[in-house]
Amino acid sequence: MSPRGGSPPMTIRQIPDYLKRESGVLLHPTSLPGPHGIGDLGAEARRFVDSLQAARQGLWQVLPTGPTGHGNSPYASPSSTAGNPLLISLETLMKEGLLSGHDIQHAPALPAERVAYDAVIALKMPLLRRAWRAFESGATAHQRAELESFCGENKGWLDDYALFAALKDAHGGAPWQQWEPDIAARRPRALQQWRLQLDDDVRFHRFVQFEFFRQWAVLKRYANERGVRIIGDIPIFVALDSADVWSRPELFHLDDRGNPTVVSGVPPDYFSKTGQRWGNPLYRWDVLAQEGYGWWIQRFRVALSQVDLVRIDHFRGFQAYWEVPARQKTAEHGRWVAGPGESFFRALEAVLGPLPVIAEDLGVITPEVEALRESLGYPGMKVLQFAFGSDARNPHLPHNFTHNCVVYTGTHDNDTTVGWFASRSQKERAAVLRYLGRPPGEIHWEMVRLAFSSVATIAIAPLQDLLGLGTEARMNLPGKAEGNWEWRFTPDRLGTHLAERLRELAETYGRA
Fold first, then answer.
1. Is 313 in the active site?
2. pLDDT beyond 70 at 13
């Protein structure tokens, strides 16, 4: 399969204008310190930006920032565009006069080094309701106008999401396929009746999104003013139990009951011998193309209002994706199906302009996938943990890099570098040390140095690697249903010594 249509390819290896030689840190906001069981968009997030500035790092990479879904995964969100209410800073709400000191002071103590999601939800959602009540009763005319303006500008996705979220609450969190048939099928009379019945809850969920987007905008402005750009993340697929699928079922391969006929996944790979059956419903790309990819354009427009660069998760799926019959329990028995190719990205660029994209091109990558990425000019990804399992031709070894790529010591799906190295065979550990040309020492810093010294335009290290943490600090283990996405660090972990060491590497290798 080859890329379809579009403009003439860019010069191969040309570096896009939105990239420059720099470095940064991968850290999801949920992992920030703070007193309420989860990181948020308040003071600790700004303090982290300050630490990046002190270390002369130009990039902060985050994971998807939507509400979390199954298994607390940010990649299984009930909305492709909404923000996660749990990231809203309670202290900021207090400063805005929407919560009192008494509300926050009497909050229960929650774990400092793990996110206990159920406990966080039990704490924060009632307080957000209280803040909404305070807004309703005491907001100024200017604040009300801001809320109305936000709702108007985001009507294309916000109305459906707010109603979906209110309906989920009213049905005890049940998937939308288990709701009453009329509202599951979005019949007009049912929509009208439920909107009236749940009006207060719908307005609450609109307010929560308004507050999230407002706090996020303040944080992004704070980062940009200090020379730090934010890298966001757009998953290619959406969750079945989402506002997206419920509101636009015609865009997905579903049966008459709203269940998928085929689902997403990847064939057997590095992470799993039976492949990964992700279970997301697959797009009807022909329908999306007929409407000019409007749903995707809206999604990118919202994302680009929040971040400076976007990592597209599973980029290879736009060239060809692994289609698994929904009845199959694993991803072994699937097939490759052609994706929309270059014409999709050209359609988005025609409306949105040049897209500041990093292509996550990991997994089963064919020459056709590489040709698509190169025709678009997007940088791909290299991961040092993938570099030492074969021979000197391994594309993840730095001597095989081109400038137009982003190198990671590891990603959110990898073990930490310390944990990874400890679990390698003696032969692979020897290969790593031979490549580094030095004894093991602090293996995490040696791998960070290897990434920073490479020709890759951007080098990114997870904070866990900078802190030298082991497997206990791993963010996600693909295929594991529970216990992921929970890691947090405590404020004492970030000191001047860490910033000085990182700054020295950035200056030494021209990334400051």
1. yes
2. no
Q: Residue 271: which pLDDT band, with cuts at 50, 70 and 90?
A: low
Catalytic residue selected from 113, 313, 332, 428: 313
Instruction: Reply yes or no on whether 17 is catalytic.
Output: no
| Percent helix, strand and coil across the chain, each to the nearest 5 | 45, 10, 40
Record the tokens describing residue 431, joined without a space. Answer: 């290969």
Identify the active-site residue in 169, 269, 413, 504. Answer: 413
Once rounded to an integer, what is the mean pLDDT over residues 403-430? Answer: 97
Considering just the CA atoms, what is the radius of gyration of the chain in Å? 23
Give pLDDT, residue 6: 40
SS3 readout for 18-57:
CCCCEEEEECCHHHCCCCCCCCCCCHHHHHHHHHHHHCCC
Region of 256 on the Ramachandran plot (φ > 0 left; ψ -120 to 50 alpha; else beta): alpha
- What phi, psi does 321 have (nearest 5°)? -125, 155
pLDDT at 5 over 90: no
Alpha-carbon gap, residue 378 to 33, rounded angstroms: 34
What is the average per-residue pLDDT within 211-220? Answer: 98
Identity of the residue numbered 160: D
Sign of the Cα pseudo-torsion (398, 403, 405, 406, in order): positive
Strand order of the β-sheet with 22-26 is 357-359, 309-312, 229-234, 59-61, 22-26, 458-462, 405-408, 380-383
In Å, how far from its chain's centre is CA 412?
10
Q: Which residues of 395-427 are buried (b: 16+ CB within 10 A; e: fewer)?
A: bbbbeebbebbbbbbbbbbbbbbbbbbeeeeee
Architecture of domain 22-149+228-508: Alpha-Beta Barrel (3.20)
Rounded CA-CA distance 2/263 in Å is: 23
3-class SS of residue 368? helix
Give me the sheet containing 320-325, strands edge to edge. 276-281, 262-266, 320-325, 335-338
Treating both helix axes as pointing N-terminal to C-terminal, what angle do 294-306 and 342-352 enclose, rounded to 10 degrees?
Answer: 60
Distance set, CA 370 to CA 192, 220, 451 (Å):
48, 32, 22
- Beta bridge partners, 241, equal none
What number is the average pLDDT over the span 396-409? 97
Give the lowest-confidence range in 18-27, 181-190, 400-409, 477-486.
Answer: 477-486
Choosing from 201, 244, 360, 415, the catalytic residue is: 360
Residue 241 annotated among the catalytic residues of the structure: no
